[in-house]
Amino acid sequence: MTEARSSFDEEFSAYFAARVHVLRNTAHLLCGDWHRAEDITQLAMLRLYVAWPRLARRDVLDAYARRVVVRTFLAEDRRGRWRREQLTDTPPDVAATVDGDGTERLLLTRALAAVPPRQRVVLVLRYWNDLSVAEVAATLRCSAGTVKSQAARGLATLRQRLGPHFAELSTTSGGDPDAG
C-alpha cells in the first residue's frame, strides 16, 4: 500500500469514527428504523469513501456527508427497497430508553414517519440538524421557497398526527417554521 493511500485511509477512518453516529442519527430520523438507518449510513459512507480523493474542500465535509445520507435515503425510498416491510400498530420488543420519556419519543417517531419523505428530510435538516433555510436548500439543491413550503407542510402533517399530545409544537413555531 502506498504512503498516500495509507494517509487517505487514515484520514477517512478518523472522519468516519468522528461523524458516523451523527449521520446514523440523521438517517434514523429520516427512516424511523435503526436497521435501515444503519444500511443508509453504510451506503452513504461507502459513497463518501469512493469520492474522498476528489474532495478538495475538507471544510465542507459534514455538509457533503449529510447530503449523501439524504440522497441515499431518498433514492432508497423511491426504489421501494424496504417497502416489503409491513408497519404495525404494535412496536417490537425493544429496550427502554434511559433518556427521557420513551412514550413521547415513540409518538414523535411515528408521527415523523407519516410525513412524506421529502418533507421529512426538510424537517430533520432544519430542526434536528439545525441548518438554515439556505443550507437545507443547498443540500437538497432546491430553492429557499421550496424548503419553507416543505417545512410548513411537514409541520402541519406533524401537528395533525400528534394532535393534542404536542400542543407546544404549534405554539413554539409561531406559525412561521422559518422565522429563525
From TrEMBL:
GO terms for biological process: DNA-templated transcription initiation. The keyword Glycosyltransferase does not apply. Residues 22-82 form the RNA polymerase sigma-70 region domain. Belongs to the sigma-70 factor family. ECF subfamily. This is RNA polymerase sigma-70 factor (Sigma-E family). Keywords: DNA-binding, Sigma factor, Transcription, Transcription regulation. Gene3D superfamilies: 1.10.1740.10, Winged helix-like DNA-binding domain superfamily/Winged helix DNA-binding domain. Residues 106-158 form the RNA polymerase sigma factor 70 region 4 type domain. SUPFAM superfamilies: Sigma2 domain of RNA polymerase sigma factors (SSF88946), Sigma3 and sigma4 domains of RNA polymerase sigma factors (SSF88659). InterPro entries: RNA_pol_sigma-70-like (IPR039425), RNA_pol_sigma-70_dom (IPR014284), RNA_pol_sigma-E_actinobac (IPR014325), RNA_pol_sigma70_r2 (IPR007627), RNA_pol_sigma70_r4_t2 (IPR013249), RNA_pol_sigma_r2 (IPR013325), RNA_pol_sigma_r3/r4-like (IPR013324), WH-like_DNA-bd_sf (IPR036388). GO terms for molecular function: DNA binding; sigma factor activity.
